[in-house]
Amino acid sequence: MQGVWFRGWTVGEATARKLRGWVRNRRDGTVEALFIGEATAVGEMIAACRSGPPAARVDAVREHPGLDDGSEGFRQAVTV
């Protein structure tokens, strides 16, 4: 998915939904995100990620519960 602006798109979409958290690339080429906020908005964001930005090819979206890490706003994080 890299090179299709997935992280930048995710920041815009998450910010529009008033979510907190982060998105980052992983060295294996996948993208990982933590969405913190109202359950409906998180669900909408996950649904949006199933398609992603126009040039993206999304093969799968896996959901796992996460803990609020205290993020302020939504940002791009460092690749892991």
Write up this protein.
The protein has 80 residues and is of the alpha+beta class. It has one domain: Alpha-Beta Plaits. 28% of the residues lie in helices and 19% in strands. The protein contains two helices and three strands. It has a three-stranded mixed beta sheet with strand order 2-1-3, covered by helices on one side. A hairpin with a 5-residue loop joins strand 1 (20-25) and strand 2 (31-36). The longest helix has 11 residues, at 6-16. 19% of the residues are buried. The model has no long low-confidence stretch (mean pLDDT 93).
Condensed summary:
By secondary structure, this protein is α+β, with helices and mostly antiparallel strands. Helices cover 28% and strands 19% of the residues.
Layout of strands and helices, then pairs:
Elements: H1 6-16, E1 20-25, E2 31-36, H2 39-49, E3 74-76
How many independent structural domains? Answer: 1
Strand content: 15-25%
The major sheet is characterized as:
3 strands, mixed
User: Which structural class fits the helix and strand makeup?
Assistant: alpha+beta
Give the rounded overall mean pLDDT.
93
CATH class: Alpha Beta
Low-confidence stretches: none
Helical region count?
Answer: 2
Order of helices and strands: HEEHE
- Radius of gyration, in Å, reads 12 Å
Fill in the CATH topology.
Answer: Alpha-Beta Plaits
User: Strands of the biggest beta sheet: in what spatial order?
Assistant: 2-1-3
Shape: globular
- Tally of strands: 3
Named CATH architecture:
2-Layer Sandwich
Quaternary structure type: single chain
Distance between the termini: 15 Å
Task: Please give the share of residues in helix.
Answer: 25-40%
